[in-house]
Amino acid sequence: MAGCGCKNKNNIKEIMKRCPLCHDKAHSISYPAVKMVVKEELKELVVAGVYYACDCKDCEVVFFDEDGEQIFLVIDVDFGADFKEVTKEGIKSCGGTCSPVCGG
Ligand SMILES: [Zn+2]
Predict the structure, then answer these.
(1) Which residues belong to any copy of the CopZ zinc binding domain (predicted)?
(2) 36 CA to middle of ligand 1, Å?
(3) What CATH code is carried by the domain that includes residue 94?
(4) Looking at the whole model, is its pTM more than 0.85?
């Protein structure tokens, strides 16, 4: 039986990390998305690489980098930006990469 392959692709792409503050799970997010929502003066700190977004709504951490050295808190993020598109609830399980027939 031939599936759409969505799940397999997703497993390779998706790397789970733990938030350095609340230790809840966080999902990977591309740096342009981070750059898009952090405050103006922090944009230059965002470097090309993988960032993670904390899934916990009560946590002050929004994004952190691979090593957990760079952490963006709620106060570092401009909530006027298109925030919901990039974090917390806006991520589709398939990452939007699979075909419509897959159903996510
Ligand atoms: Zn957290």
Answers:
(1) 17-77
(2) 20
(3) 2.20.25.270
(4) no
The total number of structural domains in the chain stands at: 1
Instruction: Give the span between the Cα atoms of 37 and 35, in whole angstroms.
Output: 6
Which residue range(s) make up the domain with 72? 6-102
How much distance in Å is there from the Cα of 28 to the middle of ligand 1?
13
Question: By the 8 A CB rule, do 101 and 6 touch?
Answer: no
**pLDDT tens, position by position, 88-101:** 544 444 544 555 55
Q: Per the structure block, which two tokens stand in for 76?
A: 């570092």
Is residue 24 within 8 A of residue 58, CB to CB? The reply is no
Cα 43 to Cα 55: distance, rounded to the nearest angstrom: 22
